[in-house]
Write a structure and sequence with these properties.
This protein is mainly α. It has one domain: MFS general substrate transporter like domains (Growth Hormone, Chain: A, Up-down Bundle).
């Protein structure tokens, strides 16, 4: 709910005629990119340190501390909204503080699950974790859109989000203790070097991290620009209440699609390997993003966003699950932090580039067309990258090595889609 409110508040403020008059160079797409940078750039500077902390400190304690910090920041956001001082710059400052807390919070979450779940059940646990997250994403934004209309503002979303942290803290407090594994090297920077050497020396984890980063950079701009598209393209003449409700419902549609993705991913044949499935999921997601980029009807956009949610869930869940399966426990926090640092750092870069491209194409006269152009450019680039990943595949993602059965690096897009080299022979 908080992200829904923050993005809507930023779009509303930067599309205001007074803001446009006094800040002609700070367009709405660019301000959305700056917000993304504030929220995500802390990963570039602190993400590795967060991974070191997750491997050196008690994971449960670290989660309690970071979640408490995020609750305080959420309370400050609520107070700013109630007092009417929730300017674009206030959103950016508070987003930056939350990003700092997230730099330590995310690695702690990621390494806690493998510590609590047996290895043979890890893939299912990661899928279940993604499912509960996306159930919340399906329900939360839809309720957020309705609540913004009823409460006449975003303050209620921020207040409810603040209270939700109390529930999270209670749940974390009930989990078993999760002390850090014993380390042979007490120096944190040597530990970082050890993790980096592991990543660069193992093609499977390295290609997964690059794939996650590229997907993060090119797929996420549409989420940043969605409030602008609603207000300028989909429902330009509608009331504020209807626009706010539509924003929540469209985000909810993506969450519903993601839930469907979590439920249907088990239908993928067991023989179809991840080094085919991950790039195929990215390609399908990219194609739906192209449809979203060129949609002018909210109904077309809603269907495309829901379908996008399915493939979005497939891509992220499969990639992160494969990465966790490849990592030894003693390095999991630091390597996960490297992945977070690269992928989360790529998100604002993608939003900024998309914003610049959109503004160059459409100019200042149409914020909506600028958002469409930026989303289209990022989506088309992702189609090209995904097709290349599917053509030149990386069997090491599945833990395969040259000479192993199923190790197939013969290039070919159709071969990558069908996975025919891995298909078992027909019975009889």
């Amino acid at each position: 709910m908080e992200m829904t409110g923050v993005q809507w508040a930023m779009a509303k403020a930067t599309l205001d005629t007074e803001w446009i008059a006094h800040n002609p160079a700070l367009t709405a797409p660019l301000m959305m990119a700056y917000l993304a940078a504030a929220q995500l750039f802390p990963q570039l500077f602190l993400g590795i340190l967060g991974g070191v902390a997750a491997d050196r400190l008690n994971r449960k304690t670290l989660l309690l501390v970071t979640q408490s910090a995020r609750m305080v920041i959420a309370a400050a956001l609520t107070l700013a909204a109630l007092r009417g001082v929730i300017s674009p710059w206030a959103l950016i400052v508070l987003g930056g503080l939350d990003g700092i807390a997230m730099a330590f919070n995310i690695p702690a979450w990621q390494v806690l699950t493998p510590r609590l779940v047996p290895r043979e059940e890890l893939a299912d646990a990661i899928t279940l974790n993604g499912l509960q997250f996306n159930v919340a994403r399906a329900v939360g934004p839809a309720l957020a859109g309705l609540l913004m209309g009823v409460a006449e503002g975003v303050w209620a979303l921020f207040a409810l989000n603040t209270l939700s942290y109390a529930v999270i803290l209670f749940a974390v407090a009930l989990t078993p203790d999760a002390p850090a594994p014993a380390s042979r090297d007490a120096h944190p920077w040597r530990q970082v070097g050890e993790a980096w050497s592991y990543v660069r020396g193992h093609i499977g984890p390295w290609r997964l991290i690059i794939g996650i980063a590229v997907f993060s950079m090119l797929a996420t701009p549409f989420l940043r620009f969605l409030p602008i598209l609603i207000q300028e393209i989909y429902l330009p003449t509608s009331t504020k209440d209807r626009q706010e409700t539509a924003f929540g419902l469209l985000l909810g549609a993506m969450g519903v699609g993601a839930v469907a993705g979590a439920l249907t991913v088990r239908r993928i044949p067991a023989w179809y390997p991840k080094h085919h499935f991950i790039p195929l999921s990215i390609l399908l997601c990219a194609l739906t993003l192209v449809v979203i980029a060129f949609a002018t009807s909210i109904w077309v956009a809603a269907v495309a966003i829901a379908v996008c949610g399915i493939f979005w869930m497939w891509a992220f869940n499969a990639a992160w699950g494969a990465l966790q399966m490849l990592l030894p426990d003693a390095l999991r926090g630091r390597v996960s932090a490297i992945a977070n640092t690269i992928s989360f750092g790529a998100m604002p870069v993608g939003a900024y580039i998309a914003g610049v491209v959109g503004q160059a194409v459409a100019g200042r006269e149409s914020e909506g067309l600028a958002a469409m152009a930026g989303t289209a450019a990022a989506s088309i680039a992702l189609v090209a990258v995904a097709a290349a990943m599917l053509t030149w595949r990386t069997p090491e993602i599945d833990g395969l090595r040259p000479g192993d059965a199923g190790y197939d690096r013969v290039p070919g897009l159709v071969r990558g889609i069908t996975g025919r080299a891995h298909r078992p022979p027909a019975a009889g």
